[in-house]
Structure formats: structure tokens, C-alpha cells
């Protein structure tokens, strides 16, 4: 294993009616002293249908604060949208930012909290240049309505700069939300397409940590194997019956467990599939989880020989394939990747870039050349190989 530091400051409240039970007190505890307004950021309106907005509104009132409702945060949020939100924060002397929604809303609000407390250009200095962050962002909490990104429990915020076509995240412990309220009931209005995309994103987050050095066994690998096996079970159950509250609740917590840093401790962390997806999304605005579903099997067919022991374990421990049925470790490893590809088809996720709206006119070479190359992968890809992968996915 590799040396590591693990830190996570987010306080989580998970379960039935946690917003009504805890939000008012959390606002009073965390809002900047002397400021009596809470900015509530949300997306395109799903919060009005799943009950979260009404619960938040009541809690803000109960806390004795004024609510500034700021909606319209789009999927794959842009730097411009983040800056627009910061204007609202400043104009209203806001003491706490509260994100209510999925990963896009949480990321936008987490980034707003940074920019609102910083005089310079946060995108350039932190997201692009990765400078040290020597100040505290504005207090920020989240109410989760969609499991997928794990943003509620992690230090990342992914933004897209539409001028430069760069989509990237940046992780600073100070970006972690101060608190996360997670009531599975809010997720029950999610359309099937988002259930599938979000749950695959969760699986991808686990795989991105799992398929990286050290390739042998290590305690966190054991944890990830268990998480993946359970997530696949819950994914099937949720697709078969989206009203299955137990499966949906389990998926929600799996999303936080997958991407809070803990299951990656001591691992290098790949993230190459994410880097390839982020740039596809920067250029085409495709759906994050769906893009990952298309890319993962093809990417793994390219690199499995470089991390063979881990791909063998994946086949044995996650897909429960019997080694005796295969003539070599390579054959077994490939069968594990095919089991993943079969599962993606079974779940009805897209398997080609064309299904994501990418056409012959899309300049895949330009997108491939813009991808970040992961240092933590079993093998560092070249931009030429990324283009090959895109073409195989087309
Ligand atoms: O906008 P609204 O109306 O709220 O609808 C959203 C949106 O259309 C809808 N939705 C959310 N909760 C719902 C619901 N619809 C009905 N009922 C509910 N309860 O779902 C749609 C997708 O929402 P979005 O927030 O865009 O999805 P997701 O959570 O997948 O977030 C995607 C963004 O997060 C980034 C992605 O790149 C993308 O920009 N990521 C963030 C990460 C992080 N912070 O750690 C890591 C990830 O790898 C990822 O890159
Ligand atoms: Zn992701």
C-alpha cells in the first residue's frame, strides 16, 4: 500500500425526515455570525416535486433566517453559472450556502462558497493551477436528492469552462460540505434514466480506485469488492422495481461511501475513465454516468494486462467467476471485463458514443488531445490511445 492522509470533515445525517429534524439547528450552528440569509441553490425544479424544497424552506424559517432561492443550476455546471451565483451571495450578504439537489447543484454551490470568499479568480488559481487554499470558503451544506457523485461527502467540485472546453475537478479538504442531509425519500422521484446513470457513476468511482496500484490485496480493496458486489445487487433490484426503498436507500449510501476518499486510502487512484468522460462532456454536454458506462469496458480491455492481478480479483470476487472455468489468468481477467460489459447492457445503459449524441462531425481527436492523463493508472495512456478508445466506443 502507499502512504496516505485521510481527512473528512462532513457531518452526515442520513435517514427519514432528517431535514425537518436537523436543518434549522445546523443553519444556526454554521452560518457566519451576523448574517441572517441562507442562499438555497437548486437545479431545474425537481426539488419542488420531491418535497426537499418545501422542507428546506420551512427549516430556514424555523431557524429565523431569510431564504434566497437561486435555481437554474444546470447539469454539468459551468464556471459562468458559478460566478452568477456568487453575485447573488455577495449582493445578499449570505451567511450560508445550501445546495439542494444532485452532484451538479452541490458542485456549483461548493465552488460558489470558495469564490465568494476569495478576491482572485478561483477557477484559474485553484481548479487550473491548484494553488494552496489558505482561507476558509463560505459555510456550505448540502441536501442530497440524487445519489451518484458522492459530492456530499468529498472535497471536489467539477465545473466546465465553456470558453476553453475544460471540465475538471479539484479537491481541497476545505471544499467538503460542513454537513450533508440525506433522506432517501427525496430520491424516489428520480427518472429511471438518472437512477441508471447515477448508479453507474457510483460503480465507476469504486472501479477507478480499485484498478490502481497496489495491484495486490489490501484492506481497502476488500472493502471495495464488497461495495461493488452489493451495488450490483442493488442496481439490479432498483431497475427491476424503482419503488424498492431498501435498494434505493442502499444505493444512496453507497454513493457516499464510494467517493468520500476512504475506500481509496493506500491506493494510487486511476480516474482515467473519468478524465476521458469529463472532456467528452466538456465538448458535447453528455451525461456523466452514461459516458462512463460507454468508456469503462473499452478502456479496461486496453489496460488489463498492466494490472492483471486486480482484474483477476475483479472477475473472482466481484463477478464470482470460477477460475477453474478459464485456461489462463488473462482469460479470466477478460471474462470479468465482459461480465461488466454484459451488466451494462442488462441495465439498459448506453454502450456507444453515438447513443450519447456524438456524431461523425464531432472532432474526437480534439477531445482526445484535451484529456488529462492519469498518473495513477496501471499504464499511462497517450492521447493517441485515448483517440483509439473513443473510436472503438463510437
Ligand atoms: O436539475 P433538476 O431539476 O434538479 O434535475 C436533476 C437533473 O436533471 C435530476 N434530479 C436530481 N434529483 C432528482 C432529480 N430528478 C427527479 N428527482 C430527484 N430526486 O437529475 C438530473 C441530473 O442531476 P445532476 O446533479 O446533474 O446529476 P449528478 O448527480 O450525476 O451530477 C453530475 C455532475 O457531477 C459531476 C459530473 O461531472 C457532473 O458535472 N461529478 C462530480 C463529482 C464530485 N463532486 O465528486 C464526481 C463525479 O465523478 C462527477 O464528475
Ligand atoms: Zn463520476
SSE layout:
Layout: E1 11-14, H1 18-30, E2 37-41, H2 46-49, H3 52-63, E3 66-70, H4 79-91, E4 96-101, H5 103-116, H6 122-128, E5 140-144, E6 159-161, E7 166-168, E8 179-182, H7 192-210, H8 219-240, H9 245-258, H10 272-284, H11 288-303, H12 308-318, H13 329-346, H14 364-369, H15 383-393
Parallel strand pairs: 1-8, 2-3, 2-4, 4-5, 5-8
Antiparallel strand pairs: 6-7
Helix pairs in contact: 1-3, 4-5, 7-8, 7-9, 7-11, 8-9, 10-11, 11-13, 11-15, 12-13
Bound molecules: 5,6-dihydroxy-NADP (NZQ) and zinc ion (ZN).
List keywords for this structure.
binds zinc ion, binds 5,6-dihydroxy-NADP, alpha/beta, six-stranded parallel sheet, 394 residues, 49% helix, two-stranded antiparallel sheet, Rossmann fold, single chain
Description:
- It contains 15 helices and eight strands.
- The protein has 394 residues and is an alpha/beta fold.
- It has a six-stranded parallel sheet with strand order 1-8-5-4-2-3, sandwiched between helices.
- A hairpin with a 4-residue loop joins β6 (159-161) and β7 (166-168).
- α7 (192-210) packs antiparallel against α8 (219-240), α7 (192-210) packs parallel to α9 (245-258) and α11 packs antiparallel against α13 (329-346).
- Bound molecules: 5,6-dihydroxy-NADP (NZQ) and zinc ion (ZN).
- Residues 149, 201, 204-205, 274, 288 line the site of zinc ion (ZN).
Amino acid at each position: 500500500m502507499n502512504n496516505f492522509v485521510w481527512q473528512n470533515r462532513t457531518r452526515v445525517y442520513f435517514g427519514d425526515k432528517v431535514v425537518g429534524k436537523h436543518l434549522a439547528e445546523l443553519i444556526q450552528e454554521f452560518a457566519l455570525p451576523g448574517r441572517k440569509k441562507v442562499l438555497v441553490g437548486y437545479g431545474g425544479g425537481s426539488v419542488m416535486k420531491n418535497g426537499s424544497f418545501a422542507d428546506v424552506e420551512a427549516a430556514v424559517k424555523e431557524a429565523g433566517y431569510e431564504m434566497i432561492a437561486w435555481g437554474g443550476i444546470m447539469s454539468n455546471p459551468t464556471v459562468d453559472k458559478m460566478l452568477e451565483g456568487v453575485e447573488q451571495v455577495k449582493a445578499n450578504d449570505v451567511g450560508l450556502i445550501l445546495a439542494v439537489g444532485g452532484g451538479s447543484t452541490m458542485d456549483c454551490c461548493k465552488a460558489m462558497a470558495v469564490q465568494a470568499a476569495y478576491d482572485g479568480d478561483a477557477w484559474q488559481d485553484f481548479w487550473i493551477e491548484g494553488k494552496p487554499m489558505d482561507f476558509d470558503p463560505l459555510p456550505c451544506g448540502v441536501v442530497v436528492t440524487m445519489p451518484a457523485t458522492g459530492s456530499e461527502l468529498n472535497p471536489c467540485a467539477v465545473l466546465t469552462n465553456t470558453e476553453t472546453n475544460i471540465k475538471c475537478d479539484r479537491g481541497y479538504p476545505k471544499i467538503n460540505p460542513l454537513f450533508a442531509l440525506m433522506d432517501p425519500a427525496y430520491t424516489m422521484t428520480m427518472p429511471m434514466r438518472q437512477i441508471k446513470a447515477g448508479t453507474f457513476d457510483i460503480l465507476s468511482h469504486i472501479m477507478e480506485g480499485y484498478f490502481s496500484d497496489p495491484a495486490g490485496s489490501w484492506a481497502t480493496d476488500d472493502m471495495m469488492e464488497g461495495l461493488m458486489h452489493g451495488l450490483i445487487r442493488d442496481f439490479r433490484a432498483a431497475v427491476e422495481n424503482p419503488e424498492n426503498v431498501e435498494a434505493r436507500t442502499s444505493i444512496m449510501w453507497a454513493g457516499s461511501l464510494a467517493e468520500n476518499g476512504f475506500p481509496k486510502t493506500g491506493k494510487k487512484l486511476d480516474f482515467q475513465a473519468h478524465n476521458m468522460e469529463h472532456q467528452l462532456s466538456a465538448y458535447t454536454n453528455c451525461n456523466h454516468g452514461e459516458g462512463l458506462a460507454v468508456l469503462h469496458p473499452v478502456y479496461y480491455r486496453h489496460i488489463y494486462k498492466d494490472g492483471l492481478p486486480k482484474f483477476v480479483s475483479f472477475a473472482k470476487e466481484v463477478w464470482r467467476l470460477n477460475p477453474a472455468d478459464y485456461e489462463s489468468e488473462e482469460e479470466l481477467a477478460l471474462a470479468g471485463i465482459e461480465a461488466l460489459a454484459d451488466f451494462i447492457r442488462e441495465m439498459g445503459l448506453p454502450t456507444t458514443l453515438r447513443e450519447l449524441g456524438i456524431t461523425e462531425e464531432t472532432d474526437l481527436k480534439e477531445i482526445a488531445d484535451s484529456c488529462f492523463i492519469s498518473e495513477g493508472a496501471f499504464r499511462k495512456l497517450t492521447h493517441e490511445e485515448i483517440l483509439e478508445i473513443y473510436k472503438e466506443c463510437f
